[in-house]
Design brief:
Strand order of the largest sheet: 1-2-3-4-5-6-7-8
Helix content: 10-25%
Distance between the termini: 55 Å
Order of helices and strands: HEHEEEEEHEEH
Radius of gyration: 18 Å
Shape: elongated
Number of strands: 8
Number of helices: 4
Oligomer: single chain
Structural class: alpha/beta
């Protein structure tokens, strides 16, 4: 497996830049893949605003202490089971891309006060009730949740969108499509109407 330190060194050689000065670092598709994150390595990425770690074999998140400017964290297509340890980037993180993992719960996101975008499709979220855990994320405007088992609770994609809006009324986009006025109106009605 590739370590984070090895991946950073390879990135620096390829991009001819210093990682500790970079605002965007892509460590996607490592061969062999990264399977563990390293807090010490990420602590040196003080200017990084976008960190891409997609398509590896990462199974667990780590503290991102020192990444005080991080705005976009991409962890899609890994083996992550739990969203955790985001407190160190709680005030700066605006986008979390975590689709195609093994996440069953939306715990761990309420600390992200500036989260605007959450891409969490194709995970293991079974119930729309999990979305209630996002109510503290008042800035959240764009979610992608398609491909989660909770969609089987409804008879159609349209019905699912309305259920999502009932729980998160500030959204502007759901599953890549802008929210329509008719959906807002339907979401404001009680479910039995």
């Amino acid at each position: 497996m590739t370590t984070c330190a090895q991946a950073i060194k390879a990135w620096e050689a390829k991009s001819e830049a210093s990682a500790d000065e970079a605002t965007e670092i892509k460590l996607c598709f490592q061969t062999p893949p990264i399977n563990k994150l390293d807090t010490k390595v990420f602590g040196t990425l003080k200017k990084c605003q976008k960190l891409s770690l997609s398509t590896n074999m990462i199974d667990r998140m780590v503290n991102l202490t020192g990444m005080s400017e991080l705005k976009i964290l991409s962890l899609g297509r890994n083996n992550i089971k739990k969203i955790e340890k985001l407190e160190d980037v709680a005030g700066t993180l605006e986008q979390l891309w975590i689709s195609y993992n093994q996440i069953a719960s939306l715990d761990g996101l309420s600390c992200l006060t500036n989260l605007v975008t959450l891409y969490c499709s194709n995970n293991l979220i079974k119930s729309f009730a999990e979305l209630d855990k996002l109510k503290a994320n008042e800035q959240l405007r764009d979610v992608v949740l398609l491909g989660n088992p909770m969609y089987s609770e409804t008879s159609s994609k349209e019905e699912a969108r309305i259920e999502i809006l009932r729980r998160l009324p500030n959204l502007k986009k759901i599953d890549g499509e802008f929210v329509k006025p008719s959906e807002i109106e339907a979401a404001q009605q009680s479910p039995s109407e």
